[in-house]
């Protein structure tokens, strides 16, 4: 894929970028290794100061950055601005908490292991490669970079080929904030040139956020090199509505949960599993809400839904919906790609989805919701768990016993009760099954790329 900004609202190429050649890649890996030798000997206090400076730069550059996001991947400008501020908050969170998350631990009774003192420290591991997607072009990267740099690691970013301007902004952010040169750098390369970087002996570990096939092939290479990986892959999150739920609130939240970021969020609710007692009321309110969304120019302040980020993504969505309709699904809202420039797809609600349809098992990466009618919590959990994914989930109920039952029975990295899934710096984030391995964010996220070193003293 060419490395280029292609505006999804117009379909026009705005700017193309030459990929880095092998010599430039070598220079950047070497600089990341050299920066690591410096960074590992800095204090948390020093790194926190630089990290806060990076957060401040993001805030100063908010408008410029929001426009880059919108023009490169079509996120409505209001959401793009919010993404920039969320990143600043995430960096400050790690500036404040990294030291506490990585505090050494001592055995209370070291004599049992024959020591005067014994315990563990979290040591940085070195250069970490991060392969990232376009859908939250700042947040996905910075939720890796913040903890990695605070731990004393350095980072190399291979960003998605359609968000090069975001990548180039991030390439200089941390050096501008005071971190050693090379501590965080972007590699402008296509996916086909990732493997030698991942195999490089100086690259100690890696993370990939993206699709399941990309994750599988990346992890296979990392596995052959015995390198630790974190994978944040696809999702097809269930949103379960039980009879005791506040149906109006559930339906209003469902509209946002499915359509945030033009429906292109790994943790968007994608499958709506509704008890038959409240099915018709929920579906009516949900379809009404979805039909009321404003589709249009993502730079327009009043737009709710912009275009799909890529033409192939829009075509894939259209083919999934066509397949469902051909196999008997009912269209309650939207359903087509409008005849206009740009890669738009109407916000869509489909009912009567069955296991013969592709949308039953595949992730829909755009504003397409599927609705299922169920008669019991057991049936709801069976459908919810009936895909290969297990990223997050949501359940709406006011029955505490039922709430606990779902928390126990949903096979997902998170359960949100009477709310929609979101990522917070304070809470771990990650999936089970084919949605990934490892965790980002909170204490778990920063510890992923540390050497938990045992220290024993006679
Ligand atoms: P993608 O095609 O897998 O691309 C993601 C990144 O991986 C890009 O930088 C891509 O580079 C690179 N890549 C692709 N194949 C690769 C390979 N074989 N080896 C190494 N790198 C490779 O995914 P996408 O379409 O951009 O993003 C959408 C997917 O990401 C969805 O499935 C979504 O659910 C998932 N996602 C998951 C999370 C999470 O936290 N779980 C968050 C956001 C998105 P090129 O751009 O150069 O191809």
A few lines on this structure:
By secondary structure, this protein is α/β, with parallel strands linked by helices. It contains 15 helices and 18 strands. NADP nicotinamide-adenine-dinucleotide phosphate (NAP) binds next to strand 8 and helix 8.
CATH homologous superfamily label of the largest domain: Aldehyde Dehydrogenase, Chain A, domain 1
Major sheet size, sense and barrel closure: 7 strands, mixed
Structural domain tally: 2
| Helix run count | 15
Using the coordinates above, name the CATH class of the largest domain: Alpha Beta
Number of strands: 18
Report low-confidence residues grouped into runs of 5 or more. Answer: none
Shape estimate: globular
Q: Could you tell me the strand content as a percent range?
A: 15-25%
- What small molecules does the structure contain? NADP nicotinamide-adenine-dinucleotide phosphate
The CATH architecture of the largest domain is: 3-Layer(aba) Sandwich
Portion in helices: 40-55%
Task: State the CATH topology of the largest domain.
Answer: Aldehyde Dehydrogenase, Chain A, domain 1
Name some characteristics of this structure.
458 residues; alpha/beta; Aldehyde Dehydrogenase, Chain A, domain 1; Aldehyde Dehydrogenase, Chain A, domain 2; 2 domains; seven-stranded mixed sheet; six-stranded mixed sheet; 18 strands; 41% helix; 19% strand; globular; binds NADP nicotinamide-adenine-dinucleotide phosphate
């Amino acid at each position: 894929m060419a490395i280029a900004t292609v505006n999804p609202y117009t379909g026009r190429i705005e700017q193309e970028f030459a990929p880095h050649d092998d010599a430039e890649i070598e220079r950047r890996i070497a600089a990341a290794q050299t920066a690591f030798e410096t960074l590992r000997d800095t204090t948390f206090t020093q790194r926190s100061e630089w990290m806060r400076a990076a957060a401040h730069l993001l805030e100063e550059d908010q408008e410029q950055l929001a426009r880059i996001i919108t023009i490169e991947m079509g996120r409505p400008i209001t959401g793009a601005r919010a993404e920039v501020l969320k990143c600043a908050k995430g960096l400050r969170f790690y500036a404040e908490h990294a030291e506490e998350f990585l505090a050494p631990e001592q055995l209370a009774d070291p004599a049992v292991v024959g020591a005067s003192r014994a315990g563990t420290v979290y040591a940085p591991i070195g250069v970490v490669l991060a392969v990232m997607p376009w859908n939250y072009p700042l947040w996905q990267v910075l939720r890796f970079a913040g903890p990695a740099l605070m731990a004393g690691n350095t980072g190399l970013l291979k960003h998605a080929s359609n968000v090069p301007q975001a990548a180039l902004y991030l390439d200089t952010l941390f050096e501008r904030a005071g971190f050693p040169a090379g501590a965080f750098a972007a590699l402008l390369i296509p996916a086909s040139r990732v493997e030698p970087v991942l195999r490089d002996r100086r690259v100690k570990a890696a993370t990939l956020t993206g699709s399941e096939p990309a994750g599988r092939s990346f992890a296979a290479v990392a596995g052959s090199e015995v390198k630790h990986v974190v994978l944040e892959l696809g999702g097809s999150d269930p949103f379960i509505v039980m009879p005791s739920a506040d149906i109006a609130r559930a339906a209003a939240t469902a509209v946002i949960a499915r359509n945030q970021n033009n429906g292109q969020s790994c943790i968007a609710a994608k499958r709506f599993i509704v008890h038959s007692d409240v099915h018709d009321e929920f579906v009516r309110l949900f379809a009404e809400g979805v039909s009321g969304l404003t589709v249009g120019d993502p730079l327009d302040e009043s737009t709710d839904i912009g275009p799909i980020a890529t033409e192939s993504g829009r075509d894939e969505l259209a083919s999934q919906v066509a397949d469902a309709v051909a196999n008997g699904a009912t269209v309650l809202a939207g359903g087509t790609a409008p005849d206009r420039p740009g890669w738009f797809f109407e916000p869509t609600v489909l009912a009567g989805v069955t296991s013969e349809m592709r949308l039953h098992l595949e992730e829909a990466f755009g504003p397409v919701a599927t609705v299922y009618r169920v008669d019991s919590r057991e049936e709801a959990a069976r459908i919810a768990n009936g895909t290969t994914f297990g990223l997050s989930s949501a359940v709406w109920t006011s029955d505490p016993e039922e709430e606990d039952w779902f928390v126990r029975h949903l096979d997902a990295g998170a359960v949100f009760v009477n709310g929609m899934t979101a990522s917070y710096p304070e809470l771990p984030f990650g999936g089970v099954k084919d949605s990934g391995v490892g965790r980002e964010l909170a204490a778990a996220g920063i510890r992923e790329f540390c050497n938990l070193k045992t220290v024993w003293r006679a």
